[in-house]
Design brief:
The protein is built from 9 helices and 12 strands. The chain is α+β, with helices and mostly antiparallel strands. The protein folds into 3 domains: 170 residues, PAS domain (Beta-Lactamase, 2-Layer Sandwich), CATH 3.30.450.20; 86 residues, Signal transduction histidine kinase, dimerisation/phosphotransfer (DHp) domain (Helix Hairpins, Orthogonal Bundle); 149 residues, Histidine kinase-like ATPase, C-terminal domain (Heat Shock Protein 90). The strands form 3 sheets. Strands 2-1-5-4-3 form a 5-stranded antiparallel β-sheet. Helix 4 runs parallel beside helix 5 and helix 5 packs antiparallel against helix 6. The longest helix is centred in the N-terminal third of the chain and has 59 residues. The chain is rod-shaped and about 165 Å long. The relative contact order is 0.07.
């Protein structure tokens, strides 16, 4: 379909224009070349006729002038008898003498009539020219100039007659050569353009086939790049697109697997302890309290995962709402630290909070910013090894407030660091997490017109810096 469409458009638009242009040039060339040769003939006839008529006119002004004898002498001395015919006409238009030696019995002479009437605006008085066919059916051009004596009385006329057959043949030959040249140009254009069209159609066909494979899920399909042009760039773009789709598909599948695992873990704990308590654990008060604590904590964990997924869905759909107001950022940070202090102790981690007296107020959503601190502290604990250290500090930077949360945990590799804020991306798959926490956190900070910066080195630790403008800003 692409080949037919492009080829058809090329024939109609490209080749059609070239053919039309060549036809116009061919017609223009034929008109110009015919006009040129005919004007040359007419100019030559006029020069000869004018010269002879001027000479005879000067003779006619002398007393005792014999027009017929003078005319015969001129005809006998005429050197170009093989090229054209010279006729001397009487005052009434009868041919007195001809360079051919034969007097025509009947011959049309519109040029003589025109000269007598002076009806051609392009010629002087007493001149006439005619193109047509003679009595023998031959194409001829005739030029007549009237001769007058000293009393302005018509004594005769000079008439030159030339055959146009050879000139017409020469014109036809030139037009034929020009036509053959045009055909050769069209053939060359068709030959070169067919190669050019094929160089476009074939890659487009391959691109279409690869695109269909990608649409059907074959993300490993690639297009061979043959040219360093727009087609080559399109091949690179589609190959890059296929790679990105494959990576996104893999990331999304990993996300689904990770979320399924995250949901399954608390559900398994809840189900296991509920079965234990139902099968007789109610008689053991200590066991019952422990089971209820586990069920409560796992249910809370499950609720947090679901809420995180809902927030992510709202963010994707552009429906995540913010309730901005002037707030004390330090209070929300301290609350998040208190919330994770016991958990850090349970996991043998040291959580250090560098307190400051006060921070300038910021315009923000309390719940969302608390969620930011909770997500980052949760990641710091998850990706720290037992015996590790987590440090939280805040600072007033003038027009901005800066929160820095650092750890000496497993860190992030250089390859993963640029992608950790992307949705569904999870750098370390050995630790729990859905892979959307940092994407959600970055979106919340961005909507507060702040910045979330992550600096990390694998095996050394991670530092997360949150910068938010003050309420004045």
């Amino acid at each position: 379909m692409a080949k037919k469409g492009i080829t058809r458009r090329w024939i109609l638009n490209g080749l059609g224009v070239i053919v039309a242009l060549l036809v116009v040039l061919e017609v223009a060339f034929a008109v110009v070349i015919r006009s040129y040769f005919y004007q040359r003939v007419e100019s030559s006839l006029y020069t000869r006729a004018k010269s002879l008529s001027d000479m005879l006119t000067s003779y006619a002004e002398e007393p005792g002038f014999d027009f017929e004898n003078s005319a015969r002498e001129c005809v006998e001395r005429f050197p170009d008898k093989e090229k054209m015919e010279l006729q001397i006409l009487s005052a009434n238009g009868t041919v007195l003498v001809s360079s051919t030696g034969f007097l025509p019995s009947e011959e049309k002479m519109p040029d003589y009539t025109m000269a007598m009437r002076s009806s051609n605006p392009n010629l002087e008085e007493g001149e006439g020219i005619w193109r047509g066919k003679n009595a023998a059916g031959e194409n001829v051009t005739a030029m007549t100039i009237i001769i007058r004596d000293g009393n302005d009385v018509v004594v005769g006329a000079v008439r030159y007659l030339v055959s146009m057959e050879k000139i017409n043949s020469q014109i036809l030959l030139l037009i034929t050569i020009m036509l053959l040249f045009g055909i050769a140009v069209i053939f060359f254009v068709m030959l070169s353009s067919s190669y050019f069209v094929s160089s476009i159609v074939n890659p487009i066909r391959e691109i279409g086939q690869a695109a269909r494979k990608i649409a059907l899920g074959d993300y490993d399909s690639r297009i061979e790049k043959r040219y360093d042009d727009e087609i080559g760039e399109l091949c690179d773009t589609i190959n890059y697109m296929a790679g990105e789709i494959a990576a996104a598909e893999k990331t999304q599948n990993d996300f689904i697997s990770s979320v399924s695992h995250e949901l399954r873990t608390p559900l398994t704990a809840i189900k296991g302890w509920s079965e234990t308590l139902r099968q007789g654990g109610s008689g053991d008060q200590e066991l019952m309290e422990k089971g209820l604590d586990v069920i409560s904590s796992e249910a809370e964990r499950l609720s947090g995962i679901v809420e995180e997924l809902l927030d992510f869905s709202r963010m994707q759909g552009g429906h995540m709402t913010m309730k901005f107001g002037k707030m004390d950022l330090l209070a929300e940070l301290e609350e998040a630290v208190v919330l994770f202090r016991d958990r850090a102790k349970r996991e043998n981690l040291e959580l250090t909070y560098i307190e400051v007296d006060s921070l300038p107020p910021v315009m923000g959503d309390r719940d969302r910013l608390r969620q930011v601190f909770i997500n980052i502290l949760d990641n710091a604990i998850k990706y720290s090894n037992p015996g590790g250290h987590i440090r939280v500090e805040a600072a007033d930077m003038g027009h901005h407030v800066q929160i820095v949360i650092s750890d000496d945990g497993v860190g992030i590799s250089k390859e993963d660091l640029p992608n950790v804020k992307n949705k569904f991306y999870k750098a370390n798959r050995t630790r729990p997490g859905s892979g959307i926490g940092l994407a959600l956190t970055d979106e919340i900070v961005r909507r507060h017109k702040g910045r979330l910066e992550i600096d990390s080195e694998e095996g050394v630790g991670t530092t997360v810096t949150i910068t938010l403008p003050t309420a004045l800003e």
